[in-house]
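Example record used in the benchmark description.
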Amino acid sequence: MVELRKRREAPSAGHEPPLKKSSSATKVKANPDPDPSKTASTVVGDVQTGKKLTVGTTVDLDGFGGEVETQDGEMTNLKMLVNDSKNGVVLFTYPKASTPGCTTQACLFRDEYISLTSTGYSIFGLSTDSPQSNTTFRAKQGLPFLLLCDPKATLIEAIGMKKAPKGTTRGVFVVSKTGRVEAVEPGGPAATVEVVRKLISDAERANSQAGSNTVETQAVENIPEPDNMKAQNGAVASDHGSQADVAAEVADTAEKLDGDADT
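Model output (structure tokens):
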């Protein structure tokens, strides 16, 4: 007897068996958002020209860094500050007023204010803080210099102290009356003061050396003539005098002879 097997039913139209997952498929994990504190970077450069600011370069102060506001609400810019200074401008940048690190930095500049301005530099603090915050900061710490408010960070970026994506790098920028960059360097509270201190010390040493050279030159010119040289010069002068006397006597004798001959 032949056993009959039941025939499999054909799959209904439109129905497809599920696909097996490939064993070689690679799972891709989504990268988390990067930590801003780890990706932040500082670019020291002039945003107007795209050139890196280095010591010895000269910047065009016209429109450099845009306008900023003092803690008293007065609008100004770097060119005006430089023009009003005797020898140039020192800008120290700080992230946020009245925080521990920024307070230490500002107070270090306060404590050495007289010596750091001895060669004619004008000192200013620079941050993105509001006039109100900087006014409170200045009054509480008794700061002798103005604090500049740069909420859009235009000047901060121009001197290379803007931190990406947002923030301010602590540092110092020094520019002369002619626009020459004397210093541009990020650093901690004490390091920023040391940069200016060394700059002032080098300038004073150069001025002292120049003055010493002038004194030495004058001293050489005013060295008294030795006695033996005086004697020699006197003898020469005496010889010249004797020769003149002899010449005069010869002339008188010749004149007498001429007179006798006429007689």
